[in-house]
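yo

u said u wanted the structure for the complex thing, so here. seqs first:
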Amino acid sequence: MDTVKLYLRSMKMLLRSQMQYPASFLMQTLAQLVMEGGEFLAVILIVDRFESLNQWTAGNLFFFFGLMSVTFYLTECFGRGVTGAFPGMVRSGQLDTLLLRPRGVLTQVLCSAIDPRRITCIAVGVAALVIGCQMSPVHWTLLKALAFAESVLFGCMMLLGLFLIESVLCIHSVKSVELVNALTYGGRSACQYPIDIFPRPLRALFTMVAPFALVLHVPAAYILDKPLYGWPGFAAFLCPLSGAAVFGVMYLVFQRAMRFYRSTGS
Amino acid sequence: MRAYVSAFRMRWKMEAQYRGAVIGGFVCQMLFGLILVGLYRALYFSKPQPFPFGQVSTYVWLQQAFFRMLLASDGDLLDKIRTGSIAYDLCRPVHLYTYYYVRVMAQKLLGSLMRAAPMLVFAALLPPGWGLLPPAGPGAFLTALLGLLLGLLCVCALENITMACTMRTLDSRGMQAMMNLLMMVLSGNVLPLTLYPDSWQRVITALPYAQLLDAPIRLYTGQWLLSDAPRILLRQGAWALALIAAGRFFWHRNQKRLIVQGG
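structre next:
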C-alpha cells in the first residue's frame, strides 16, 4: 500500500513539473493525436475498401484496434520509467542513486517518469472501442466487463514485462537493443488486428513468445461472441494470466540482472 | 561548390559508422514488412481488388526499404540551435541552407541505401505472393530510379522546412513529431496510398508527400504507365523546386532575426 502511495505521489509531482511548459506540452500532445489518429485512419480506410476481414466485421476490427491502443498507451503513459527512461538512467549512471534508497529498484524506476502526452492516444483508443461496441454490437454482461478489465490489466503487465527485456539487455550493455522493439512495437502493429488472420509463424510469435493474442484477442473475441478458434468461455479468463506470467518471469530476470549491474561512473 | 561536396562526404562517412544500428533496424523492418504483407494478404483474400496483390506487397517492401529516407534528420543542427553554436556556422563562408541540405542528403541517401540493399534481397527471396516483384520493365525501372532521386530532393527540402520552424520555436519535439507523422501517413508508409479510397487518389497523389516514395514506387510496379512517366517526373521536379525555394526563403528570413542562445 505504501508503494502505491509513493507511486501516486511521484506521478502527481511529475505531472506538475511537465505542466510548467504548457505550449510545448500541448504541441507534443497534439502530435500524439496525429500519430494515433493516423493509425486509426488507416483502419477506417481499410474497412472502407475491404469492408470486412474473414469473419470479423468492421465494428469488430475497430474493437480490436481500440483494445490494443488503450492497453499499449496506458502502459507507455504510466510505465514510462520502464518503457522509455531506463536506458538513459543506465547510461548516465543515474541508476546508482536508486540503489542507495530503501525501496525496490523497479518501484523507483516506475516512479521516475510519466508520459501524460499519451492521453490523446488513449482517447483515440477509447473512441475506437466505443464505435466498435456500437457497430458490432456488443451485449455487455458482468462477465464480459470482467474479461475486458482483466485483458487491459494483464495486457499492461505483459507489455511492461516485454519492455523489461530491453532494460535487462541495457544492464548487460548488449548493443542493438532495437531488436526488442520488434516484439513490443511489432506486436502492437500486428495485434491491432485479430491474430487468426496471420500465417502460422507470426501467430506463433505473438501467442507463445509475446502472448498478445492470449492476453488481448481471446477475451476480445469472447466479448464479441465469436470465440477465437472456438475455445470455451473460461479460456477468456484464463489466457490473460499469461500476461502476469510474462511480467513475473521478467521481474525475476531483472532482479538477477541488477546483480550484474556495473555503474558507468561519474 | 567544393565545400558542399566535402560536407556531403563527411556526413556520408559518419553515417557509415552506424552499422550496428543497421542490423537491429533490419530485423525490425523485416518483421514490420511481414506483418503488413500478412495483413493485406488476408484482406485481399476476403475481397479481391482490381489490381494484383503483387503490386501491394512490392509497395510495402519498397516503403520499408527506404523508410530511413523519410525519417533521418540532422541531430547536430538541432543541438546547435539549442545551444547557440549555430553562431559558428554563420561565420562559415558557405550558404547555410545549401550546407545543411547536402548534409542531410548524405545522411538520408546512405542511411537508406545501407538498409535497402539487404532488405530488398531478402524480400526478393520470399515465396511468391509475399515478396518483391521485379520492376514492370527496364523503362519502368529507370524512370523509378529517376523518380527516387527527385523524391530525395523533395524529402531533403521538406526536412529543411521543418528545421526552419525549429529555429523559431527552440523546442522542436512537438513540431518535428507532427511533421514526421504527417509524412508517414501521407507518403504511404502507414497504409499504401494505392489503398486509399479511389476518390481521394487525384488529390493525395498531387501532395508533396506523395512525391517522396509513392511516385517512384508506382512507376516501378507499372501502376503508372511509361507514357505517364514524363508528367509524373515533371510534377516531382516542380515540387522539389517549390519546396527548396520555400525552404530557402524561410531560412533567409530566420537568419535575419536569429537569436543566438548563449550562456
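Residues 78 and 214 of chain B are 28 Å apart (CA to CA). Chain B has a mean pLDDT of 86.
cya
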